Amino acid sequence: MSVEGLKNGFVWQLLTFQFMHAGLWHLVFNCWRFTFSGAPLKKRWVGKNSDPVLSSGVVGGICQVLTALLWPDLFGGPVVGASAGGLGLMAAYAVLFPERELLLLLFFVLPIRLTAKMLLMLSAVLALAGIIFPINHIANAAHLGGMLTGVIFIRQFIQGRGAMGIPISPRRAT
To answer: What one-character DSSP code corresponds to residue 113?
Structure first.
């Protein structure tokens, strides 16, 4: 997906970029996100008319393109991968199961225990830092957009909460 592609009307890139990856480790980390968070979430959204993964990926792609339009020299390159969708799924998981403990292997050796909400906060901080201090070719705006979409998806469609976190109820209080 690229700004130029979207300017030329190739809007399908908002979906197709999610199926390409920049290398083996990019694919491995995205598969890991889908593995630990996908199954518990699938039980919650069965029967819902939306998909948090593709919607997080699309919104993440839009966030990256908007960032690239503002700062083309820093963020204007092509974007590939399902990271925005995977981070959206991880964020949704963290909203539903914030205190679940996860075991991460830092450098595949050092075990680190984090709660799901701590992993989400750490991921958000890393994405924000990558936007403020861009030193690599990682689509941090897409990552952040995907995470925000995952949180909103759970709040709106699963938990039935409005934009301000106020529960939406079909019954009125008496």
So the answer is: E
With the C-alpha atoms ordered 75, 134, 115, 36, is the resulting torsion angle positive or negative? positive
pLDDT tens profile 14-70: 988 888 888 898 888 888 887 877 777 777 665 555 566 778 889 999 999 999 998
Q: What is the DSSP string of 10-55?
A: -TTHHHHGGG--SSHHHHHHHHHHHHHHHHHHHHHHTT-S--HHHH
Whole-number Å distance between alpha carbons of 89 and 167: 22
Helix (H) or strand (E) run with residue 133 in it: none
Q: Tokens 């890991």: give the residue.
A: 32
Longest alpha-carbon distance in the chain: 58
Polymer length of the chain: 174
Judged by DSSP in three states, 170 sits in coil
The count of other CB atoms within 10 Å of the CB of residue 84 is 36
Model pTM score: 0.81
What three-state secondary structure class fits 161? Answer: strand
The number of CA neighbours under 13 Å toward the Cβ of 71 is 11
Q: Is residue 142 helix, strand or coil?
A: helix
Helix (H) or strand (E) holding 101: strand 101-106
- The vertex-132 CA angle with 1 and 66, nearest 5°, equals 35
Taking the C-alpha atoms of residue 59 and residue 29, their distance in angstroms, rounded to an integer, is 20
